[in-house]
């Protein structure tokens, strides 16, 4: 019998994962250093039995049509799945594997790092070294002053695995009060001393808002003009979930008018962000390029689980981490 054919959309997938798939399948890899273009994806997926993809590949009806009836398994190297048209995928009976849990610690660590970099103005300060500002302002009492976590109220929007990981890591920073909002109160929140509040109260009471929710129809652009208007002028927002949770034009307006103090973003719209985008010009906006899970052992574990999901699905066995 012929071996199942698998399309891998990235060339830099860790070798351990490639070995798992190569052992059982015929592999077609996109070998360029940039994400596979849409037209190449539509061409290469034709006749494949499975695909290993990332969040950069939108798997929608057009892609599924191009794949044809052979496609039985999708393995996404992510926990987020807003790039997958799950309704259409389920209708066709295609199995989907993903990577929950593995990236929790890495993303929580990165979230705390981004919060600190934003609140203590680290990127701004680094720029001052390069442009000579340090020499002009050395030891000026008010120069590069940031804002600390001690005695603050930290609000977390979405107290899932990553939100809980962030809360645990912030407990040693002298935060006075943790609050969170979501669909319902969580036992874990109570155990960690966090108070469940409405979304409006989260906006109004938080000194720092950390966004770690999933992107769906309820959360899409939930941080809009109205939401920013309810926040403190001194508030800082940090987003490591998905860029679509924030209405980006509203955020730009809030930052420029000092409606809020600052923002730290690991995710944005579009990705990658154009180098001439207005967000890049704002000194009170700290940007990093969607690297929440970019930690070596984490990425290898994500890739290995994705490969194992694909092989299990192709062989008719239960996936270790099945989305559907």
UniProtKB/TrEMBL annotation:
Residues 6-321 form the D-isomer specific 2-hydroxyacid dehydrogenase catalytic domain. It holds the Pfam family 2-Hacid_dh_C. Residues 112-292 form the D-isomer specific 2-hydroxyacid dehydrogenase NAD-binding domain. InterPro entries: D-isomer_2-hydroxyacid_DH, D-isomer_2_OHA_DH_cat_dom, D-isomer_DH_NAD-bd, NAD(P)-bd_dom_sf. The keyword Membrane does not apply. Gene3D superfamilies: NAD(P)-binding Rossmann-like Domain. CDD domains: GDH. Coiled coil: none annotated. Keywords: Oxidoreductase. Signal peptide: none annotated. One of its GO terms (molecular function) is glyoxylate reductase (NADPH) activity. The keyword Oxidoreductase applies. GO terms for cellular component: cytosol. Belongs to the D-isomer specific 2-hydroxyacid dehydrogenase family. This is Glyoxylate reductase/hydroxypyruvate reductase. It comes from Cherax quadricarinatus (Australian red claw crayfish). The lineage of its organism: Eukaryota, Metazoa, Ecdysozoa, Arthropoda, Crustacea.
């Amino acid at each position: 019998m012929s071996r199942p054919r698998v399309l891998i959309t990235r060339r830099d997938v860790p070798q351990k994962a490639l070995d798992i798939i190569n052992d059982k399948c015929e592999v077609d890899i996109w070998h360029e250093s940039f994400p596979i273009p849409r037209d190449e994806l539509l061409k290469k997926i034709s006749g494949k039995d499975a695909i290993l993809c990332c969040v950069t590949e939108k798997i929608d009806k057009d892609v599924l049509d191009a794949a044809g009836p052979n496609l039985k398994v999708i393995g996404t190297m992510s926990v987020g799945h807003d790039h997958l048209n799950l309704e259409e995928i389920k209708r066709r009976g295609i199995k989907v594997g993903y990577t929950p849990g593995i990236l929790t610690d890495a993303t929580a660590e990165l979230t705390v790092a981004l919060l600190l970099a934003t609140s203590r103005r680290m990127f701004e300060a680094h720029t001052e070294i390069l442009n000579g500002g340090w020499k002009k302002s050395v030891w000026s009492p008010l120069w590069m002053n940031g804002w600390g976590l001690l005695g603050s109220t930290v609000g977390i929007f979405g107290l899932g695995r990553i939100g809980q990981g962030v809360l645990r890591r912030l407990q040693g920073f002298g935060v006075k009060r943790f609050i969170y909002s979501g669909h319902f109160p969580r036992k874990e929140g109570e155990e960690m001393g966090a108070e469940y509040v409405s979304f409006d109260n989260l906006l109004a009471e938080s000194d720092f808002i950390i966004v770690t929710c999933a992107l769906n129809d309820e959360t899409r652009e939930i941080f809009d003009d109205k939401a920013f208007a309810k926040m403190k002028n001194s508030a800082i927002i940090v987003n490591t979930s998905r860029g679509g949770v924030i209405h980006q034009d509203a955020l730009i307006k809030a930052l420029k008018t000092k409606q809020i103090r600052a923002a730290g973003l690991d995710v944005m719209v579009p990705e990658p962000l154009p180098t001439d985008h207005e967000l890049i010009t704002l000194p009170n906006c700290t940007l990093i390029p969607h690297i929440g899970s970019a930690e070596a052992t984490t990425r290898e574990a994500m890739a290995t689980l994705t490969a194992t999901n694909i092989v299990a699905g192709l062989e008719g066995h239960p996936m270790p981490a099945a989305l559907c």
